[in-house]
Amino acid sequence: MVFTLDTSLPDAIGPAAAKKVERAFGISTVGEMLAHYPRRYADPAELTPILDLPMGETVTIVAEVLSAKARGMRNRSGAMTDVIIGDGNGRVSLTFFAKNVAQAEWRAKEMRPGRRGVFSGKVGSYNDVTQFAHPQYELFDDEESAQARADDRANRPIPIYPATSAVSSAQFRELVEKVLPQIGEVPDPLSASVRKREGLLDSRTALIQIHRPQTNNEVDPAVRTLRMHEALVLQTALLQQRAEVRSLSATTRPAKPGGLLERFDATLPYTLTADQKTVGAQIMADLTGDWPMNRLVQGEVGSGKTLVALRAMLQVAESGGQAALIAPTEVLASQHLRSITRMLGPELAPLLMPTLLTGQLSAPERRKAALRVASGQSLIVVGTHALLGEKTTFADLGLVVVDEQHRFGVEQREALRAKGSTPHALVLTATPIPRTVAMTVFGDLDTSVIRSMPAGRAGIESFVAPLAEHPEWFRRVWDRAAEEVALGRQVFAVCAAIDTTKKTAEDEQMLAPSEDETPTGPRWGVVQLDALLATHPTVGKLRRAILHGKMPADEKDTVMRAFANGEIDLLIATTVIEVGVDVPNASTMIVMDADRFGVSQLHQLRGRVGRGEVPGLCLLVTDAEEGTLARERVAAVAATLDGFALAEVDLELRGEGDVLGATQSGVRSSLKLLRVVKDSKLIARARELAEDILEADPLLHDHDGLREVIARRVSEDDRAALVKS
Description:
This protein is an alpha/beta fold. It contains 26 helices and 20 strands.
């Protein structure tokens, strides 16, 4: 039987095996099975260093049998075989259970000393001896079989696959070996001429070489080919989506002489930065174009993205269009409303009637707000997920602004856009995105960057307070905070948890675990820090307040208003204040357990201070020891204020990880081999190839292979995800 990539797994390997594989990996077709690539290769001639094995992880190693002994069970029926394998330096104990002594002796005979094989299991320890739980193995050809040892198959690299306790690497390899020889023609996304020019293999050869390489030299060409396929499919799909958006018609929203935008600009007490002018001109052109705007604006913390968005809202409002700004939290939505109302001033605010719509409003307030929105009376609407509700309708939604887009799922963003007739879309992010990530995740959006900062800002100094080496600095941190308050300034203190004696969903979201962090959780919670500071001789006398996501919305808003009005000296909070909170008099940001946060998150938190004429100070308090990845991450933030440089550092420190984001569902987060840092040049080249192909053949009529691969890898759901983003 000849298999295609669409052949169902039960037809290829049988119902029982297919059920196990699907349950373990979510694989249901031959194509999906062959896209479950080896993560590394073992050399039959080289033993794996056992002393380096990570405890608690499931591993696959090449080792030699040192001893095997069968024995009966002491207190119950059955028998067992005790096996010791090793590499000359370390040893691993394996235990196999059998129904009777005869079975145990058979295994002991099979695993006689001197034989080598591939062994898999979860690494544990008993009586100071490393052991494998649930061991599985595959022995190499016996040394007595000279003919088998001469066969090149006995010495070729052994693929090691991502495995589970139910399906080991060896079991998966056996299934692949069963399927691979029966694979028929495999569609190729690139023509023979392009493959030759780019030095790539054809698809079928690449699949065979990655799963069954005869030598190590066959692996790299196969991996490079399949990485290019992933990049090409992704870039082509993104470019097709961009073309799809540009095929739609949109209501043009031109600015008018003497209109709202011109009147607003005339009231600004400062001059726009060069970047704000450039991005503003791009948006102005987008809003009068033939298709809906679909633009991502990246900007440093405090660079003035909200001002740029407000100017776009005003331009849309001149033709009676409404703008909806969706923010991830109640605090940020309320902050945006106050900021927008303040910027509009007493003359323009009544004309646009900015309205807040959140789930925490009282029923009468919410009905009143919803009526303003539905009637078109409110031309600027700011809210949270409440904007997505079925009962929220707009008279003429012309612009959707999504703030901190990484906090929203694609379905949520599309639900808001669906409330208008092909509205323009503006996506804001204060989290700088490396170029290759932007190309991979947001390749269907036009991208703008605001790097320059508004004039008149005093800047921020950042320091690490390393308590592992200098525990006495803890007291100095709070003495420094008291000194700032004595100068008439205000202080933020941020914790990685609300209460360290409890675990909440908010705490889970805030933590940024790394390989070298202990699982004991953060040291400081808002509750614990507030209790401790109450006993401080100076800080204890300051006007303090706490703020976190579990507090009622009205209480959170009251606290933030009081802090913004200078009625609170020290605000002890979670990352609920991470974005959007603007208190020019706040001079100091103290981050407890700073190693528990990601690089971009620390940069966001630091951006809450130094926003006015008051110089900013950021103290990153950490117990992480020097030389650890966690400490390196904190030190990187203290070393520079350049968020774009930090974004690159973040990628280098933690790799891709979840950089594509769980909310960027579908094809964007399903990359198998492609790595956005390491493969940046390849991604850029794939973009060029995709552009060339689509320019000559927009519907891929002459590129059957590419069309077929996209159809297989980019499902309707994936395409919906691209549309929604």
